[in-house]
Amino acid sequence: MPRGPCSLVRVSATPVAVLAVALVSSLSRCSLLEPENSVVSALSPYFGTKTRYEDANPGLLPDPEVPRRDPELLEETCTPVQLVALIRHGTRYPTTKQIRKLRQLHGLLQARGAEDDRTRAAGRGDLGAALADWPLWYADWMDGQLVEKGRQDMRQLALRLASLFPALFSRENYGRLQLVTSSKHRCVDSGAAFLQGLWQHYHPGLPPPDIADMECGPPRINDKLMRFFDHCEKFLTQVERNATALYHVEAFKTGPEMQNILKKVADILQVPVNNLNADLIQVAFFTCSFDLAIKGVKSPWCDVFDIDDAKVLEYLNDLKQYWKRGYGYSINSRSSCTLFQDIFQHLDKAVKQKQRLADMDNLEAWWTNTNPNHCNTGLTEK
Ligand SMILES: *[C@@H]1O[C@H](CO)[C@@H](O)[C@H](O)[C@H]1NC(C)=O
User: Fold this and answer.
1) Tell me, what DSSP letter sits at residue 211?
2) Which of 50, 150, 282, 348 is the most buried (most CB within 10 A)?
3) Which atom belonging to ligand 1 lies closest to the Cα atom of 243?
4) Calpha distance 297→273 (Å, rounded)
5) Contact residues for 276 (Cβ-Cβ < 8 A; gap 6+)
6) Do the Cβ atoms of 8 and 382 come closer than 8 Å?
7) Nearest-CA residue for atom 11 of ligand 1
8) Which of 89, 185, 231, 374 is catalytic?
């Protein structure tokens, strides 16, 4: 559930190769803890950056550990030299900020519930009452942390990558794989889970040790690289700390489309419209996705919104991403240049090394004389 990238995987092979493959994938994908995929919502296509991974990539549902591969890709003719994967964290809890808004909504509903016992006693199919009774199971400590499902997302991703590129993920390359991550807890935890997935690949059936004891070494934290937006002064000044940078988003939040939803929701929940605002409504909308992704349950919040509402709320989220992360300001994308430079430098290095090796008569002799730490093998997590 996105914002920036979360992980970057870089793996190099022992050299037998002709082609460098860069795989920069915004990590998503994963699969279900249990096969209860019947729990879906008509709203699912509109959650944008909060979409459940399996809804974005349903091809994985039959077997989340088996990759789907273009049959043409890597067909005998070429061999991958290096793999670079930029990976997001797995499924996570809402942030504390989101949880507080949800609690505020819950409070509104419960205050209303006390005055409303008559209606409820009358047995009206009251969505507001259902929501007031729906347990608020999110607590502040959860603060955007990776959930168990998110660990599974990462383990399965590792298994898919390993079976997609068997030459790169060979046993002898395992020790050269490196992972870099941002310091964000959900990213550190995602990296650890990814390595546990790989352990499972290399040692099926054995419980994974502490990641510090794995051959590939623990993930390295590098915020300059992986949280480039926090280290780009121009981005911070022009966008992040600039009160007017998102004025289009603010305008939409108070515009007629949003007003219609506020009125409609106030009416359904039977709370004063003045107590609602776009931010609260957006969190309520995302709660449908969080409950599905984390618990595999369909929250009554899913029933509050129809498809037209969902389109408006999707637009609100897209608009924010556009101005803050996307094309709205050129500095948004330019702030990632350091990361991409790093990726391409490693790719260039892998290709050069490969070419050098191709010129050598005795590859094996060369490798025995090489410090394995010099290999461009990275597995990066942010
Ligand atoms: C803040 O954003 C507005 C709107 O894009 C822009 O006109 C202004 O120059 C920005 N301020 C700074 C300090 O960059």
Assistant:
1) G
2) 150
3) 1
4) 28
5) 108, 262, 265, 266
6) yes
7) 238
8) 89
309 C-beta neighbours (distance < 10 Å), count = 20
Alpha carbon nearest to ligand 1 atom 10, residue? 238
Per-residue confidence (pLDDT) for residue 363, from 0 to 100 = 46
- For residue 213, which amino acid is it? D
| Residues facing residue 11 across a β-bridge | 83
203 given a catalytic annotation: no
**Strand pairing report for 82-87 and 220-221:** unpaired
* Confidence bin at 250 (pLDDT 50/70/90): very high
The residue that leads in pLDDT, 67 or 279, is 279
Q: With CA atoms as reference, report the closest residue to 12 among 343, 265, 283.
A: 343
Helix (H) or strand (E) run with residue 376 in it:
none
The Cβ of residue 62 has, within 10 Å, a number of other Cβ atoms equal to 9
Torsion region of 325: left, alpha or beta (phi above 0 gives left; psi -120 to 50 gives alpha): alpha
Helix ranges (H only) for 73-207 are 96-115, 117-121, 127-133, 148-164, 185-202
Q: Is 244 in the pocket of ligand 1 (CB under 6 A)?
A: yes
Query: Hey, what are 339's tokens?
Result: 């990361």
Å from CA of 241 to ligand 1 middle: 10
State the distance from the centre of ligand 1 to the C-alpha of 259, rounded, in angstroms: 27
- Output the residue whose Cα is nearest ligand 1's atom 9: 238
> What span, in angstroms and rounded, lies between the C-alpha atoms of 292 and 186?
19
HEC sequence for 329-374: CHHHHHCCHHHHHHHHHHHHHHHHHHHHHHCCCCHHHHHHCCCHHH
Tell me which residue has its CA closest to atom 12 in ligand 1. Answer: 238
Q: Which residues contact 233 (CB under 8 A, 6 or more apart)?
A: none
Instruction: Please say whether the beta carbons of 112 and 269 come within 8 A.
Output: yes
Ligand 1 pocket: which of 232, 244, 248 to mutate (most atoms <8 Å of CB)?
A: 244
> Which residues, including other chains, have CB under 8 Å from residue 207's CB and lie 6 or more apart?
none
Q: Is the CB of 164 under 6 A from ligand 1?
A: no
Euclidean distance between CA atoms 244 and 246, whole angstroms: 5
